[in-house]
Amino acid sequence: MVEHTTVKDIAQLREIWRLCFPNEDIRYTDYFFKKIFKPEYGLAYKENQTAVSCLCKIPHDIMLNGIILRASMIVGVATLPKYRNRGYMHKMMDICLDGASHSELVTLIQAYNPSLYEQFGFQMVYYRQFYELTRDNIERITNEGCAFNPSVNDMFKVYSLFVKRFNGFYIRDYDYFNNYIEEIKSQGGKIVAYYDEYGLIQGYATLLLDKQTIKIEECIYLNSVALYKLLNVALQQRHTAYLHVSANEDLSILLKGAKASRYGFTMARINDYELFNRLYGSKVNNVIDAFKLGNKPLYMNEFA
Question: For 59-80, how does the pLDDT look when each residue is reduced to its tens digit (9 = 90+)?
Fold first, then answer.
C-alpha cells in the first residue's frame, strides 16, 4: 500500500536509490537524504512494511511568466526491479498528483524517462545541452580576477542578474546558496568565480571532477569574458570539460568547433488550466504554450 514516508524509512529509500540509480554519485545521495529530504516529501509503496517503490516531491517557488508560483519537483521515482510492472509507480503518482492539484498550479518532474510521465499530463518544457571542450575550443587567457570559494552574497547577486534574461527559474535565497555550496563540496567539487577590475563578480561555475574529465554543472556568466575566464580555469583542472547549459544558450560562436548535444531535462504539468488562465489572462490548453507566455527562454537548472 502507498504510505507517506517517515524517518524510519530513510534507510530503505537510500537502498532503493542505490539499486535503481547506479550511476548516481553516492556522495550526492548522502547529501540529498541528509540536507534536502524531509519525511513529508516522500511516498512509498510498501509490501510487508518494507518500501519497494518510492518518490519524493520537493517544494520550490519558480518565477513563471512574471509571477512567482508555488511549485514542486518530483524526483527519485523508483521501483526495485523485481517489483516492477505491478502498477506501484502509477498508484504513487496518482496520489502525489491528486495532492499537488489542491496545492499548486505547476508540478515539475525530472525527465530521465519522458514516456513514463506523459500519461500523467507531463510534457517536456526544458532542454539542456552540453559542449565537450578541450583547449582547442577556447582562447587562452589569464586567470586574473578568478578565485575559488565565492561568498554566498556574491553568488546570489550574479545569479539574480543572470536569470533576468530567462523565464521559469527557481527562486533562490541565501539559504539555497549555503546549501548549494555544501552540496558541491560534498561531491568533491569546486566553485570558481570571476571578478572584474572593480572587484564585482561577473560569473561563477561549479566544477565536478573525476579522474579524467570535469563536469561544469552550472555556469553563470554576465558576459563572454566571464565565460572564457571560467572555462580556462576548468580546463586547467582537466584536459576535457563538459559544459552543461540551457538549450537556449548558443555558445557555438564563442566555443570554436565545439558541438552541442541536446537532452531533455524537465517536464511540467499544469494542475488546473482554468485557474492558470484566470491568473495570466490567457487561453492556453497545453503545458508548452503555458511556459511560453513569458516570451523569454527558460532556465530551469535544478535537480531537486
Answer: 999 999 999 999 999 999 999 9
Among residues 112, 109, 133, the alpha carbon closest in space to that of 120 is found at 109
Instruction: Give tens-digit pLDDT for 14-25.
Output: 999 999 999 888
The answer to whether residues 107 and 74 touch, using CB atoms and an 8 Å cutoff, is yes
Q: Determine the Cα–Cα distance for residues 48 and 38; give it in Å rounded to an integer.
A: 23
How many residues are listed for the chain in this entry? Answer: 304
Q: How far apart are CA 65 and CA 284, in angstroms?
A: 13
Per the prediction, the chain carries an average pLDDT of: 94
Scanning the structure block, which residue is given the C-alpha cell 546570489? Answer: 156
pLDDT in tens, 34-59: 999 999 999 999 999 999 999 999 99
Cβ-based neighbours of 266, under 8 Å, separated by 6 or more: 108, 109, 110, 111, 124, 125, 126, 300, 302
Alpha-carbon distance 304 to 299, whole Å?
Answer: 14
Please report which residue ranges of the chain form alpha helices under DSSP H: 10-20, 26-31, 88-100, 114-117, 152-162, 174-186, 224-237, 273-280, 287-291
Q: How far apart are the first and last CA of the chain?
A: 25
Q: Which residues pair with 129 in a beta bridge?
A: 245, 262
